[in-house]
Amino acid sequence: MAGFRSKLFVVFLSSLLLIIAPFADAIDVKYCNKKNNYDVKVSGVEITPYPIERGTETTFTISASTESLLSGGNLVIDVSYYWFGVYSETSDLCTKTTCPVTTGDFAISHSQSLPSVTPPGSYTLTMKLQDSNKKELTCITFDFSIGWYSAEEAVAAS
């Protein structure tokens, strides 16, 4: 009977891992103000490559939707490292997606090459999307981490 239970337990753990594994690298996106009914709804963030490697270009792709036509605006990005602001950038929305943004689904793509001296650890990114009148259309925040080794160091070590 004990052998059957241990086999059943192994099957249960294997099944659980198969269910959980696809979500292990999922990015947990939160709205800055949960009570605000933003005009732009964010459905997800994809980071490529993930985990992020120092010295390698990283692309953040934000999947979103809107019920209004967006003719332009700004994308404001702030990055914190263990609660300290380390990076801030404001970009023209039309350099990150095709403008005008029509109603429905769209994607915003931002690429950044991180220097090989970027400290490893936990980071928080806050992204605000503003229309041309500076009205906040959405604001999201999510955490990501940067590994201990850069791509250059990995190649040199091999």
Automatic annotation (TrEMBL):
Gene3D superfamilies: 2.60.40.770. Residues 1-26 form the signal peptide. GO terms for molecular function: sterol binding. Keywords: Lipid transport, Signal, Transport. Residues 22-151 form the ML-like domain. It comes from the Eukaryota. SUPFAM superfamilies: E set domains. It holds the Pfam family E1_DerP2_DerF2. InterPro entries: Ig_E-set, ML_dom, NPC2-like, TRP_N. GO terms for biological process: sterol transport. Residues 29-144 form the MD-2-related lipid-recognition domain. Belongs to the NPC2 family. Monomer. Catalyzes the intermembrane transfer of phosphatidylglycerol and phosphatidylinositol. This is MD-2-related lipid-recognition domain-containing protein.
